[in-house]
C-alpha cells in the first residue's frame, strides 16, 4: 500500500515563504499585492528584508526598483531641510517654535531660549491670550508639545537598551525619535503630537535603524511614511 505524501515541516514552509519574499523583492517592478500577501504571515528578520518590505508597504519606496536610489536621496534631502527649519536649536534640548504645515510662521527668529522680543509682539497680545495668532500662546503650545515628546521618548521601551540607558548609542536613538516626532507635529498642526505616537514610531525606527545596509541604517527612519501612518491611526 502506497504511503501518503509527507506533509512539509514548519521549517521547510518558512524557507519556502522566505524564498518567495526574496523573489518578489528581486523583480524590477514590485507587485505590492503579492508582497502584502506574503508579508501578512510575517517578514524574516535578516539581510535587511524586513526593512525593505516595510518601506515598500508604507509607500516610502516606489515599486520601480530603478527609482529607489533617486527617491531615497530626495527624501533624505527633504528631511535635512525639515531639520534646519524646525530644529534650529536642538542642542541642550531646546528648539524654537517654527511653522506649521511645512511653513515657518516667521516668529521663530524672534524667540530665544523661550523668551519673546517685546518689540515684535502686537500691542493687544498678552501672556494669557488663547488666540491662535498670539505669539505668547504659540510659544506656550510649542513648549508644552516639546515637554510631552521629551517625557514620552524617555519612557519608550525602558527595558530595551536600544532605546534607554546612558550609552551614547541609546541617547542618539532617543534624539532621533524626538526629532522625528517634533517635525511631524510641526508639519501637521491639525494633528500635532499625541501621547503614544512614540510607541508607533519605535518599532519602525528599530527595524530601519538595524538595517544591515550601513547607508540606510545611518539615515535611520528619517521622515519616512511615519507621518502618513500616524495620520491613519489618529
TrEMBL record:
Region annotation (Disordered) maps to 87-110
Q: Sorted alphabetically, which Pfam families does this protein's record hold?
A: RabGAP-TBC
Q: Name its GO BP terms in alphabetical order.
A: intracellular protein transport
The record's annotation in InterPro entries points to: Rab-GAP-TBC_dom (IPR000195), Rab-GAP_TBC_sf (IPR035969)
- Every Rab-GAP TBC domain range: 44-234
Q: Which GO terms describe its molecular function?
A: GTPase activator activity
Give the source's domain of life in one word. Answer: Eukaryota
Q: What is this protein called?
A: Rab-GAP TBC domain-containing protein
Q: Which organism is it from?
A: Aegilops tauschii subsp. strangulata (Goatgrass)
